[in-house]
Amino acid sequence: MMRLLLPLLCSAMLATAHSELNLVAHGPVGNNACVDSPLRLTFNEPPVLAHHGRIEVRRESDGATVDTVDLAATKYTDRFGDSENSTALSYEPVCIDGNTAFVRLRTQCLRPNESYEVRIPPGAFQDAEGHDFTGFNTGWTFRTKATPSSKADRLIVAADGTGDFCTVQGAVDQMKPGLTHVPVIFIRKGNYHELVRIDRERKHVHLIGEDRQGTIISYTNNEKLNSGWIQRAVLGCEADDFMLENLTVQNTTPYRGSQAEAVCINAQRCVLRNANFLSFQDTLNLSGRVYVADSYIEGDVDYVWGYGTASFERCELRSMHDGYIVQARNSAARPGYLFVHCRLTAAPGVQKCWLARIDTGRFPASHVAFVHCAMGPHILPEGWQIIGPPADTLRFEEGGSTDSSGHPLEVSGRNPAAKALAPKVESSLSAESILSGQDGWHPQQK
To answer: Which Pfam families has this protein been placed in (predicted)?
Structure first.
């Protein structure tokens, strides 16, 4: 009998030892919530989203339901950007990061100076063993605060709700279109799980992170979820005179998950400085004119590409798998991509990477130049991959290349269609020489 009782006692002990999924903290609460605040639920262990039930937010003044998240739905769509140029995108309304679940509410469903009640059904979240969270039927209320002026020179974004806005998109939407000065959006440390869209009317937007490594805009978005160059990016900008610095933008699409830009820019006189850009395929998509300095770019296939003119200074381009760094699709009327004093590095095990590739049958005027760049052994001796017919307008150029230790690099095996730059030509290639345009733009002065 004792042999039978022992397993029964152990089973009982295991059953009572199980820790239920309990809520440790939730927000927003109180009377000072941002109008763009997501719902935040922190549990005692990582929650699992159950795909049934509806999360509801109701306005207390009239009982109206202002947003419903149907957890059984297979697709969610909302408009990103606060104007007639806003973009309809598919998105995931619930993001789980560790022990915390974030629930994104639809754009502008909350109003300033209003009180709201949140209702979460039992079983919306479960623990790893399938036990239900009891939910919220009553008791979770909050009130939104007034929004700052749309003409403000500075807005603060804080994920914990202590700033003017909780999301980068909320702050961008608050900026009045047509501004000619430079409003600053200061983003405090935190992980912002969101897509950001800056439409062409919101010029001169300036995003500054509090900490390059600790201020992170991240999301999973790609060609399979939102088809199109700017649609599949985490941050998409079509506004001139945009600046971004001192933060990280990451597309969390997994390896081989299709094209997945971290940043897509189609605008004039834009600056990316002192920042990290992470993805695999198509990390940076740059059209228009863009200056990139002192930044880290990570990817594997065409992870710097586009139709524009871009200058990179003192950047690290890190290849995460065998592949291609650049694909420049510029026209013959404009320069392409220039890299000066950059480092080309690779993750462990990466052995075969091309500086650039192009199909001259489609893009015969592709222009890519590497000047005084340090290149790791993962760069193939041929350097450049060219398919298609010979093209007199093709400009694949290289000068002053070194190995990772700074010694002159042997480049005699390069593709014969590429050009070795003379020292005099090397010195003439600069950000100003390719980006100045008709307006005389000097990006280093910004």
So the answer is: Pectinesterase
Number of residues written out for the chain: 446
399 token code pair? 């000068």
Query: How many whole angstroms separate alpha carbon 368 and alpha carbon 286?
Result: 13
- The burial of 208, by beta-carbon neighbours within 10 Å (0-12 exposed, 13-18 middle, 19 or more buried), is given as middle
Share above pLDDT 70 across residues of the chain, in percent, rounded to a whole number: 95
Give the model's confidence band at 176: pLDDT under 50 very low, under 70 low, under 90 confident, else very high. Answer: confident
pLDDT of residue 83: 66
Domain boundaries along the sequence of the chain? 21-144, 154-445
| Beta carbons within 8 Å of 9's beta carbon, 6+ residues apart | none
Confidence of residue 446 (pLDDT cuts 50, 70, 90): low
Q: Which of 149, 151, 170, 174 is nearest to 161 (CA)?
A: 170
What DSSP element (H or E) covers 297?
strand 296-306
Q: What is the dihedral of CA 73, 124, 26, 218, to 10 degrees?
A: -40
The CA-atom distances, in angstroms, between 244 and each of 8, 205, 236, 249, 405 are 62, 9, 12, 10, 31
Residue 356 — left, alpha, or beta (φ > 0 → left; ψ -120 to 50 → alpha)?
beta
Angstrom distance (rounded) from CA 134 to CA 131: 9
The helices-and-strands tally (H runs, E runs) of the chain is 4, 37
Burial code of 11-47, b = ≥16 C-beta within 10 A, e = fewer?
Answer: eeeeeeeeeebebeebbbeeeebbbbbbbbbbbeeeb
The average pLDDT across 177-182 equals 74
> How does DSSP assign 97-139, residue by residue?
ETTEEEEPPPTT-S-TT-EEEEEE-TTSEE-TT-PBP--EEEE
What residue type is 243 in one-letter code?
M
Residue located via tokens 């799980």: 193
- Architecture of the domain made up of 154-445: 3 Solenoid (2.160)
Q: Is the pTM of this model over 0.90?
A: yes
Written as six digits, the tokens of 288 are 């228009």
Backbone phi, then psi, for 63, in 5-degree steps?
75, 5
Is the CATH number 2.60.40.1220 carried by domain 21-144?
yes
Report d(CA 153, CA 27) in Å as an integer.
28
84, exposed or middle or buried, with CB in 10 Å at 0-12, 13-18, 19+? exposed
DSSP state of 28: S
Question: Rounded CA gap, 238 and 304, in Å?
Answer: 18
- pLDDT, one tens digit per residue, over 325-337 is 999 999 999 999 9
Cα separation, 205 vs 137, whole angstroms: 41
